[in-house]
Fold these 3 entries.
Entry 1:
Amino acid sequence: MPYDRESDAANIQDNLNCVHTGSVVVFLPEIDSTNNLTKTYLANGADEGLVAVAESQTGGRGRMGRIWHSPPETGVYLSVLLKPPVDPDHLPLFTLLAGVAAVQTVNEFCPHSASLKWPNDILINGKKVCGLLCELVQNQGEPSGLIVGVGINVNHLPDQFPEDLKNIATSLRIVNDSLTDRLAVIRSFLMNLDREYQTYLKEGPRPIIEKWSRHTDLFGKKVSVTRGPNVIIGTATGLDESGRLVLLRDDGQEEAFDSGEVSLRTS
Ligand code: ATP
Ligand code: BTN
């Protein structure tokens, strides 16, 4: 079922009761990317808490310029504008914070437990159900806003994924064998994000790192990290206080990796 854009926006906004998310909720038909649109709203003076939801995206983006498949009437594609008092070095923590909110949401709607894959993926049975893209916008060197973008595969059937995603993507519908109300998913994510963000503002990064670590099965596993032309192999041991992935390399050295520069594969 497509969104009823006006009544759904009102419905979300009226039932949220959040401090930082949902100050304005806009539903759009097909657009390029909700992250791009939110950047435009920010440039035009939007306040913290604006939420942009799209029925479909023609240029949905993942990390490192990858494409996020965003067909209509199936997935949730949304971006939230936050204005945290952070320096740009904290950006990786926000991907983890949004990941904690998203994994809580996926687990609320899906009895199978979802897990986080560093830095920005949510998997069920090893297949991707959700991805996050957080982007910091700077104005003359100063951060002016943080855009939290999330894509959740909700009501896709297997044949609604293109060939190259069929073996690596899943949806709540595929796992549950039933439809899920996209508005309920949106509401849940916005409330979870709001709560985790409030905790971060009060208590700093530690609770994010702890919660993220509870929702991953990565630690103790052998992984390979690709950085430019180099592949580093080791065992993932945890996250450091900046949200970097710590690896005990096969040569015995410990190294922490920044999400901006690497891709991770479990072997
Ligand atoms: P990394 O581990 O480096 O993050 P990744 O394959 O997870 O690698 P991302 O940039 O995080 O890459 O995510 C984008 C990738 O997600 C795309 O390359 C594509 O393979 C996959 N993808 C695109 N659209 C969807 C979707 N709707 N559902 C699941 N996976 C998708
Ligand atoms: C990833 O897995 O690399 C991240 C995918 C993030 C997709 C969401 S959909 C809403 C928002 N708009 C975008 O263009 N990307 C994010």
Entry 2:
Amino acid sequence: MADITRDVLIVGAGAAGTTAANELRKAGLSVVVLEARDRVGGRLWTDVIDGAMLEIGGQWVSPDQDALIETIDELGLETFSRYREGDSVYVGPDGALHRFTGEMFPVSAETEKVIAEITERLDAMVAEIDPDRPYAHPKAAEWDSVTWDAWLREQSDDDEAVRNLAFATGSAMLTKPTHAFSLLQSLLMAASAGSYSNLVDADFILDKRVVGGLQQVPQLLAERLGDDVLLNQPVRTLEWGEHGVTATTDALTVRARYAILAHAPVLYDRISFVPSLPRRQHQMHQHLSMGFVIKVHAVYDRPFWREQGLSGTAFSPYELVHEAYDNTNHADERGTLVGFVSDQNADDVFELSAEERKERILESLSHYYGPEAKNPVVYYESDWGTEEWTRGAYAASFDMGGLHRYGKDLRASVGPIHFACSDLAGAGYQHVDGAIRMGRLAAAQILDADRS
Ligand code: FAD
């Protein structure tokens, strides 16, 4: 078995791990990145499927994501705006299609008023939340003990208003049923994007994409590390103590003074720690779980919806595909739609055969864009639930009560072991921006420890 010695071992070559490794390298430390998969990027994965370039994982960049924007600029990558000219569409409770412009759904004046009032209330609450310390809010325990659904239902009995407010952090972000996470977890999600209003503004949150794909970020960062990124090396055991760490994969032994676990927290228990991690980590890690969403791509010979004056932006809390967008690639003649099927809807369609699932999903898209949507030339469902080294999408969050109970220890290092991942972030939480921030933070913690 080959033996490698470095200052720092990084487990995972996603955005967090490749960022941390570059930061440490710049500061003069030697690093090695061990990646379980046969590719770099983790939840960033740009691939060509049946001749169409698709973003199977993360893709959008919003204007508040400074760390990601800085990295994109520094790597010399170009961005382009999501197509958004024309009307958006909304399917209401009676199944009727409505066209609209702006951020507010075309609901009745009464429902619109309820949505506006609760949004204002939420913005005020979110403004009090420090995304790096949501557990420190004086009402953290109270807000972490009520589900997002129950809190919204206490505010109003207008079902359409509640469903529309709920899905912004539910189906669309944490991708868990709204009864499965707390009000505090929902406020953190909104605080990480600056406000609840930012989060529901598709033009803000889904603003830009990278020409050629977002996976280039970790790929270019990994290129700078050259031979210090090793693929197909799942870390199986990690011995740790005052001396540092010794990790083993099926083919390698790596000794280092520090380690960074730069992957989703649900995967910590795939590693055998010797000695085992402390009680607090054992307990905390059991209260974090991945959300679940299917990202569906449908490519057509042309963006036919634009001919009808549609932007491609579509929402409905009553539809199987609860949101969909024009996802046409830069300078591509073909038109691409991307839609999302989340949480229990995703569970349900995975009970069907692949053919039936495709039919149901395309049927839902046709409710927004008309019958032409049923005949794409390329169709692809990304299913991160089957990926051994991710196990869901988009990211991990705490179950009820977990955020205020364990939040303060989420990023705390354990001896020489540090943690970095988008799922541990404040600003940029569950996004690539957060992964980069956490990569930088873990590197800074190690550099501090090394100086003292
Ligand atoms: P990961 O990308 O998960 O990287 C962790 C790496 O560690 C993986 O490569 C994994 O293989 C490896 N690993 C795990 N265990 C081991 C082990 N034991 N040994 C060795 N290696 C190991 N974010 C946005 O900003 N915008 C979006 O539009 C967006 N859309 C998304 C759509 C989808 C479908 C998904 C899945 C995610 C999306 N995200 C989006 C979220 C974003 O992709 C992630 O938050 C981010 O990429 C996570 O980066 P990371 O480095 O923290 O973790």
Entry 3:
Amino acid sequence: MKTALITGITGQDGAYLAELLLEKGYIVHGIKRRASLFNTDRIDHLYQDPHEENKRLFLHYGDLTDSMNLTRIIQETKPDEIYNLAAMSHVKVSFDTPEYTANADGIGTLRILEAVRLLGMEKQTKIYQASTSELYGLVQQVPQSEQTPFYPRSPYAVAKLYGYWITVNYREAYGMFACNGILFNHESPLRGETFVTRKITRAVAKIGLGLQKNLFMGNLDAKRDWGHAKDYVEAMWRILQQDVAEDFVIATGVTTTVRDFIRMAFAEIGFKIRFEGHGIEEVGILDGIDEAVASAVLKVDGYKVSVGDVLVSIDPAYFRPTEVDLLIGDPTKANEKLGWKPKYDLPMLVADMVSSDVKLFQRDIHLIKGGHKVLNQAE
Ligand code: NDP
Ligand code: GDR
């Protein structure tokens, strides 16, 4: 029975990876941060009572900014595999908290690698580092592959650039089995609510149910290669099952604008959106309603919006000081060496996210109608 340690187990990827590894028979240790409110929503379904026999999921308090804590957890859990997923992962927020981001995302990676080395575990513990397509930043060439030069465009990406290279360096200097997965954007119903896809699918559900009037967005021209997180955690695991430690690009190879993602998401609830104007003057207007699709999805309150309403507006607050305009990954190496191919395409991803958010808010409406208080969820 193998043992894995997941940093960032309470995040989107941590939750799907923990589920996958438990299914594969692993003992799974996860590091969670102490918070004033519970932050384990995404893994509560995996929770096992501490008194249960054959328990295989264990949580430890910790933080990537605390070397001693990380060293102790690694020493105690003796993992065969470490998945370093913890990070301050929001690109826009990294402009507000650049030093903390460097500490957690950059030096945090060093802390894990150095702990394994100091403990003399460099020949027994494999390490996965959550690297990112944000490393490519300013477009040099497309599609982006393992050979494409990096040009990071945010404090987040610069911190992750350090994480990438320190992982390569420990592999080369100490013969450690340490690999970078250069993952392109991946989303799911568990995606954090302030990332663009989830922000859109939540708003689509709420607008459709009459709970929200308008969606405020930033740059609609950005293009992203979006996949499903479930597929991407499978790739992480495969990367560590290789005989030789290597870095891999994980992507779908298809790119789409934020604007088209919005169109697709509204289409899921039967709304057609027309975009007019340019730059911060651009708006998305409800152009038509497909009654058949809409009535199938919107079972609670019916429509509160009409054709001609402005449903999408631009707010410059959501623009970044430096933007990554175009990401499109070349997953050929992963296809060939890992035998990895995504099961979800973009339409399936959008459908999964919108239907999940519609259910979420339909449940809220039932609770409100039943006189229960629903916690305010941040936009
Ligand atoms: P999330 O933001 O959903 O999860 C991040 C996790 O890291 C959470 O568990 C969070 O804890 C934890 N965390 C944050 N800061 C610290 C810290 N200082 N110490 C310990 N834990 C911390 O990210 P994702 O699941 O989407 O991404 C996983 C990793 O993959 C991240 O490193 C991200 O940068 C990277 N990545 C993500 C991509 C994507 O498209 N999703 C693409 C490429 C790379 P808490 O729950 O308490 O906030
Ligand atoms: P990204 O994801 O920055 O690619 O990083 P995000 O979903 O935040 O942005 C994608 C693109 O959408 C544009 N955008 C907006 N973004 C947000 N969040 N909110 C808006 O209102 C909005 N309007 C337009 C952005 O400008 C951007 O171009 C994600 C994170 O998961 C990283 O941790 C990971 O490394 C990369 O993906 C790969």
